């Protein structure tokens, strides 16, 4: 299976221009570059499609030197790998996806992903889930974090969260702290 490097500096902006033009023609308004917020009951993302990936995921580090995001070999097919070279982004890189919680309010969800790290740096992988409500800035109580993992083999990272009646969206963050690589695959959200 070949790897596809996603150069978010040029590829994403070119792709976004096409999406905005298409959305303007078919929807009557311009699109945005924020992650998709489609309502779901469950989610199972294996990062199989570059198109779906570009529609649903975003990052602030796309233009940072030394940062790369690559769709390629995962645990069970394709996955996504975040990498930061020595001298690259000092804090690592965060990949985000926002989902609407209309069908999840008042329930408990389990979010898990398989992750592994690589490279010679002190890289750590982590999963974070942030509950968002209108008119308020998320606080400590709104963020659920998995443990940090520096494992070289695929290991599950997971969080459990109660979705309150005021929660309108969940922000899923796949995080690489430090330099090196963190690969993620098989992201699943399920009601428990």
Write the layout of secondary structure elements.
Layout: E1 4-6, H1 11-27, E2 43-45, H2 50-56, E3 67-74, E4 77-84, E5 93-100, E6 108-118, E7 124-132, E8 143-145, E9 155-162, E10 169-177, E11 180-191
Antiparallel strand pairs: 1-3, 2-11, 3-4, 4-11, 5-10, 6-9, 6-11, 7-8, 7-10
**Total beta-strand segments:** 11
Our measurement of the CA-to-CA distance between the termini, rounded to an integer number of angstroms, reads 34 Å
Which radius of gyration do the C-alpha atoms yield?
A: 17 Å
CATH class: Mainly Beta
The CATH H-level homologous superfamily: Galactose-binding domain-like
Q: Which spans of ≥5 residues are poorly predicted at pLDDT below 50?
A: 1-39
Largest sheet: 7 strands, antiparallel
What percent of residues are in strands? 35-45%
Shape: globular
Number of helices: 2
The chain-level mean pLDDT equals 77
Order of helices and strands: EHEHEEEEEEEEE
């Amino acid at each position: 299976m070949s790897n596809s490097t996603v150069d978010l500096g040029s590829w994403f902006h070119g792709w976004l221009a096409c999406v905005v033009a298409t959305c303007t023609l078919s929807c009557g308004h311009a699109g945005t570059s924020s992650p998709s917020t489609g309502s779901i009951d469950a989610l199972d993302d294996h990062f199989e499609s570059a198109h779906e990936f570009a529609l649903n995921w975003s990052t602030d580090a796309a233009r940072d030197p030394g940062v790369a995001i690559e769709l390629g070999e995962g645990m069970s097919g394709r996955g996504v790998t975040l990498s930061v070279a020595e001298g690259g982004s000092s804090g690592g890189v965060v990949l985000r996806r926002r989902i609407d919680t209309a069908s999840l309010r008042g329930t408990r969800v389990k979010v898990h992903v398989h992750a592994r790290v690589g490279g010679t740096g002190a890289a750590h992988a982590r999963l974070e889930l942030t509950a968002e409500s209108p008119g308020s800035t998320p606080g400590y109580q709104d963020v659920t974090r998995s443990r940090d993992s520096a494992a070289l083999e695929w290991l599950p990272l997971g969080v459990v969260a109660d979705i309150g009646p005021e929660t309108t969206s969940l922000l899923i963050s796949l995080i690489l702290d430090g330099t090196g690589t963190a690969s993620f695959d098989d992201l699943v959200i399920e009601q428990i």
